[in-house]
């Protein structure tokens, strides 16, 4: 009897191989989330962690949850994160310097203690238990089994959580909606007066366009001023913040061709 | 392989998420770390469902996903609002109570 349940408790060999390949990868990706500087890279690493979790769910006989994990998390939630990053995060670099002294070291030591506590507790708690397996519960099919539970025993929590979802959607609409006041926008006349009656006429004719004449005209190459220095205001500020600006001096002519003197003869 | 290995993985991911919440200062990355913690808890639920041989753990994990989606929607709306007024998503800049 005990032998039999022990055999059920042990998972199949392919699953063990899957686990030992994917688990280190997901832990590495999760650690990378903490280390990488750009929020976009963190988002992509988190998407990878979520995909590995979806694979684990399917391996754990939770096929429905695995698919929902991919659709909801890597599909909807991560896309939402990336949209918000595009809205706010591009020119907001994350500084990794510490404001509180010893903050990071303390956090890591506390986390090691916490993780050690969790893992040792799990080790003690499940040592003598054997897993039953979901073969019986999944007998009519995973989706059917879940549905028969959700719509009978868990129908009230299900309704409550749908109310929560609607409330959250309404709340997000209220929070993110901005009422632009009509007077806040400058009129064309006011804009024109700022441009031509301001302190300097440097930008009166418009900002310089990007690119080095006849050599390179991409938007990430700053124009060269007559003295050979790159013109910073010829490229978008977003590109500067992302660090995607190319060095335009490499497209400058190395040596200027000799200009004929006034006499004009060759 | 014992099913408890999934629980160890879940504990590690949860801990990593907790560290991220504490040490990262970009509010969006902090949110992603909270998502990681919720996902780790979900993995534990699904594993316990198999250990116990019932589907209740999977249903709780399903509810957790819905709650996480709500949390992300409201949280990101708050981040957008804060960004609109302060032009920053760093959690250190939103210290109204201190000053």
Automatic annotation (TrEMBL), chain A:
Chain ranges passing through the membrane: 17-36, 43-60, 66-90, 102-122, 154-176
Record-linked InterPro entries: NADH_UbQ/plastoQ_OxRdtase_su6 (IPR001457), Nuo/plastoQ_OxRdtase_6_NuoJ (IPR042106)
Keywords: Membrane, Transmembrane, Transmembrane helix
GO molecular function, one term: NADH dehydrogenase (ubiquinone) activity
Alphabetical list of PANTHER family matching this protein: NADH-QUINONE OXIDOREDUCTASE SUBUNIT J, NADH-UBIQUINONE OXIDOREDUCTASE CHAIN 6
Name used for this protein in its record: Unannotated protein
UniProt organism field: freshwater metagenome
Species classification: unclassified sequences, metagenomes, ecological metagenomes
TrEMBL record, chain B:
Swiss-Prot/TrEMBL GO biological process terms: ATP synthesis coupled electron transport
Swiss-Prot/TrEMBL keywords: Membrane, NAD, Translocase, Transmembrane, Transmembrane helix, Transport
Gene3D superfamilies in the cross-refs: 1.10.287.3510
Record's GO cellular component terms: NADH dehydrogenase complex
InterPro entries, A to Z: NADH_UbQ_OxRdtase_chain4L/K, NUOK/Mnh_C1-like
MF term (GO), any: oxidoreductase activity, acting on NAD(P)H
Membrane topology: Multi-pass membrane protein
Cited PANTHER family: NADH DEHYDROGENASE SUBUNIT 4L-RELATED, NADH-UBIQUINONE OXIDOREDUCTASE SUBUNIT ND4L
Transmembrane feature ranges: 6-23, 28-48, 60-83
Similarity comment text for this entry: Belongs to the complex I subunit 4L family.
Organism: freshwater metagenome
Intracellular or extracellular location(s): Membrane
Pfam families per the UniProt record, alphabetical: Oxidored_q2
Name this polypeptide is given: Unannotated protein
């Amino acid at each position: 009897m005990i032998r039999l349940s022990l055999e059920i408790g042990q998972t199949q060999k392919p699953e063990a191989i899957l686990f030992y390949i994917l688990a280190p990868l997901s832990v590495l990706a999760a650690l990378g989330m903490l280390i990488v500087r750009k929020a976009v890279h963190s988002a992509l690493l988190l998407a990878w962690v979520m995909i590995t979790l979806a694979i684990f769910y399917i391996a754990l006989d939770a096929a429905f949850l695995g698919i929902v994990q991919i659709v909801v998390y890597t599909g909807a939630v991560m896309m939402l994160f990336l949209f918000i990053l595009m809205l706010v995060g591009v020119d907001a670099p994350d500084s990794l310097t510490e404001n509180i002294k010893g903050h990071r070291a303390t956090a890591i030591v506390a986390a090691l203690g916490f993780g050690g506590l969790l893992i040792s507790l799990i080790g003690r708690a499940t040592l003598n238990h054997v897993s039953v397996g979901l073969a019986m519960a999944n007998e009519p099919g995973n989706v059917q089994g879940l549905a028969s539970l959700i719509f009978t025993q868990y129908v009230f929590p299900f309704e409550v959580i749908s109310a929560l979802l609607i409330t959250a959607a309404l709340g997000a609409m209220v929070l993110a909606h901005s009422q632009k006041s009509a007077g806040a926008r400058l009129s064309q006349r006011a804009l024109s007066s700022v441009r031509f009656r301001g302190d300097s006429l440097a930008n009166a004719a418009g900002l310089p366009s990007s690119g080095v004449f006849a050599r390179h005209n991409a938007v990430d190459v700053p124009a060269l001023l007559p003295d050979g220095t790159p013109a910073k205001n010829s490229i978008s500020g977003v590109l500067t913040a992302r660090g995607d600006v190319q060095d335009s001096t490499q497209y400058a002519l190395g040596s200027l061709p000799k200009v004929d003197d006034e006499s004009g003869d060759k | 392989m014992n099913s408890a290995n999934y629980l160890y993985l879940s504990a590690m991911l949860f801990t990593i998420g907790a560290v991220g919440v504490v040490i990262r200062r970009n509010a969006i990355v902090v949110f992603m770390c909270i998502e990681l913690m919720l996902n780790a808890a979900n993995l534990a639920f699904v594993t316990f469902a198999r250990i116990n041989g019932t589907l209740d753990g999977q249903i709780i994990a399903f509810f957790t996903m819905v709650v996480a989606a709500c949390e992300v929607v409201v949280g990101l709306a708050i981040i957008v609002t804060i960004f609109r007024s302060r032009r920053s998503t760093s959690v250190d800049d939103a210290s109204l109570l201190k000053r």
